Amino acid sequence: MGGDVAAEIARLKDGPGGDILQYGFGRLSHTLMHHGLLDELRLWVHPFFVGKAGGDGLLFREGTKSMFDLVETKAYTSGVVLLSYRVKASAGS
């Protein structure tokens, strides 16, 4: 996908078909949030940390503000917890 990614994603969302699913995060996730195209966020919380993140390795950066409502939680026997959040509609939408 090239060109105006946000416009292309908006076009796909307005068309027929099912949900659009993206795994992972990075620049595309930030673009989707910035343009109000992210509908739901699912965080898989693992009970350990490895290495360090910086730059594009961070999901939320300074200047980014998004509000979410927790809609579902699921705990697995491995200790992993899935937290599903729906993006709150902004006052202007």
TrEMBL record:
Q: Name one GO biological process term.
A: riboflavin biosynthetic process
Signal sequence range = none
As one GO molecular function, the record gives: 5-amino-6-(5-phosphoribosylamino)uracil reductase activity
Q: Which SUPFAM superfamilies match?
A: Dihydrofolate reductase-like (SSF53597)
Domain Bacterial bifunctional deaminase-reductase C-terminal, chain residue ranges per copy: 5-82
Q: Provide the protein name.
A: Bacterial bifunctional deaminase-reductase C-terminal domain-containing protein
User: Which organism's genome codes for this protein?
Assistant: Nonomuraea diastatica
